């Protein structure tokens, strides 16, 4: 082996050993790291609710009655659980995409635009292929959503990888572009011919063959939730059980080391945002074909269609420790907060702005908890290293 080859092999070996959870020490650290994320996040939510209770008291209302109404409105029955799952579906898909991109140290703030892109492409597919049987058309529109969102995510990915464009700026700007494109399409090329005179920005009623099957009769729970959970599981397998996922995480851990080891850093960066955009695009497809109207409708803004899922999904991913599997319960929790907040508002007659403030407090505390989580993990690593050092000193050679 040449000197250069030896050095490269040494770097790769050191890097692999740093990422691999081998030995009792790494196992203990891994267990603590896997548990610290959810525990710290739960503590952050409890602190947010404590601050929210103080705000409710300041308004002269009963916080106990308010939070009881919130929980009942989100998880109190079959219909409430179904509504929570429906609300959690786009959050889970966006959050899964965020987990993928963040593992490559790429920040995707473009979920809103990628949702719109996926919804647009899947809508066009349904309009053009509406005569296909349901067993074929439903997978086609879902795949079309993946393609649309993935293509929209690949743009900032390629810009960052090959031109060094900051992905935060490019993804945010592409959100605005996507909104304007959708506004144009729904006000002219894709507008419902019957409602053209009324200037309602929506498509015609899309093919019933593309409607997502309802899982629970009498509720709005559709196949989209199952698809979202399967995507999260598949993302976890991809990141930790495939060579491509390993390379993607290696690029995120150290782009220089990965490049020195011969890994395609630019390609992995582009792939990370492409996959992240694809899951967001799938969320857009489900929002269209799992809706009660079964139309693509907009009010001129992204929020009117997405419900801010492109941003709330980021918080769900952070709450889940940027792990796709932990993002599943995190998304259900945040979906429940969004559904139950309306019930709380009706029960104790608090202003709508308080509900918004409560959600904002949860976001602030969850994001701030990341630093606490890092400190906890670092303290555990230092203690384990010290224990191993002391053991090595005591044990005779």
**Residue runs with pLDDT of under 50 for 5 or more positions:** 5-23
What gross morphology would you assign? Answer: globular
Instruction: Give the C-alpha Rg.
Output: 23 Å
Q: Oligomeric status of the shown chains?
A: single chain
What is the tally of helical segments? 15
User: How would you state the average pLDDT, rounded?
Assistant: 86
**How much of the sequence is in beta strands?**
under 5%
How are the elements arranged and paired?
Blueprint: H1 3-19, H2 23-58, H3 63-75, H4 78-103, H5 111-128, H6 134-163, H7 167-187, H8 223-241, H9 243-253, H10 255-260, H11 265-289, H12 303-306, H13 309-319, H14 324-348, H15 352-394
Helix pairs in contact: 2-3, 2-15, 3-4, 3-14, 4-8, 4-11, 4-13, 4-14, 5-6, 5-7, 5-11, 5-13, 6-7, 6-11, 8-9, 8-14, 9-11, 13-14, 14-15
Commentary on this structure:
With 397 residues, the chain is an all-alpha fold. It has a domain at 86-323. It is 77% helix and 0% strand. The protein contains 15 helices and no strands. The chain has helices spanning 3-19, 23-58, 63-75, 78-103, 111-128, 134-163, 167-187, 223-241, 243-253, 255-260, 265-289, 303-306, 309-319, 324-348, 352-394. Helix 4 (78-103) crosses helix 13 and helix 5 (111-128) crosses helix 11. It is globular, with a radius of gyration of 23 Å. Residues 5-23 have low confidence and may be disordered.
Short description:
With 397 residues, this protein is mainly α. It is built from 15 helices and no strands. Helices cover 77% and strands 0% of the residues.
């Amino acid at each position: 082996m040449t000197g250069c080859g030896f050095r490269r092999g040494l770097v790769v070996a050191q890097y692999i050993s740093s990422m691999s959870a081998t030995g009792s020490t790494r196992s203990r650290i891994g267990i603590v790291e896997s548990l610290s994320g959810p525990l710290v996040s739960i503590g952050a939510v409890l602190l947010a609710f404590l601050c929210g209770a103080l705000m409710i008291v300041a308004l002269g209302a009963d916080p106990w009655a308010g939070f009881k109404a919130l929980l009942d409105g989100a998880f109190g029955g079959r219909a409430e659980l179904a509504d929570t799952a429906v609300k959690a579906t786009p959050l889970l898909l966006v959050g899964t995409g965020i987990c993928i991109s963040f593992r490559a140290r790429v920040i995707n703030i473009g979920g809103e635009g990628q949702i719109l892109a996926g919804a647009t492409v899947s809508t066009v597919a349904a309009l053009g292929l509406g005569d296909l049987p349901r067993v074929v058309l439903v997978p086609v529109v879902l795949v079309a959503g993946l393609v649309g969102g993935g293509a929209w995510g690949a743009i900032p990915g390629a810009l960052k990888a090959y031109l060094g464009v900051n992905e935060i700026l490019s993804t945010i700007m592409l959100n605005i572009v996507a909104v304007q494109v959708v506004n144009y399409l729904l006000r002219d090329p894709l507008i419902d011919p019957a409602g053209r005179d009324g200037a309602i920005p929506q498509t015609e009623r899309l093919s019933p063959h593309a409607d997502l099957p309802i899982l629970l009769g009498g509720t709005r729970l559709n196949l989209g939730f199952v698809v979202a959970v399967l995507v999260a599981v598949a993302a976890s397998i991809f990141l930790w059980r495939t060579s491509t996922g390993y390379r993607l995480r290696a690029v995120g851990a150290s782009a220089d080391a990965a490049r020195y080891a011969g890994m395609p850093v630019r390609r992995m960066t582009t792939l990370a945002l492409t996959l992240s955009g694809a899951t967001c695009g799938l969320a857009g497809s489900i929002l269209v074909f799992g809706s009660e109207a079964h139309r693509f409708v907009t009010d001129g803004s992204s929020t009117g269609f997405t419900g801010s899922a492109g941003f709330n999904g980021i918080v769900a991913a952070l709450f889940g420790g940027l792990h796709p599997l932990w993002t599943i319960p995190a998304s259900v929790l945040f979906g429940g907060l969004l559904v139950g907040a309306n019930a709380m508002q009706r029960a104790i007659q608090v202003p709508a702005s308080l509900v918004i403030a409560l959600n904002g407090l949860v976001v602030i505390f969850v994001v701030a908890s990341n630093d606490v989580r890092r400190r906890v993990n670092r303290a555990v690593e230092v203690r384990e290293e010290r224990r191993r050092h002391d053991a090595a000193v005591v044990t005779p050679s």
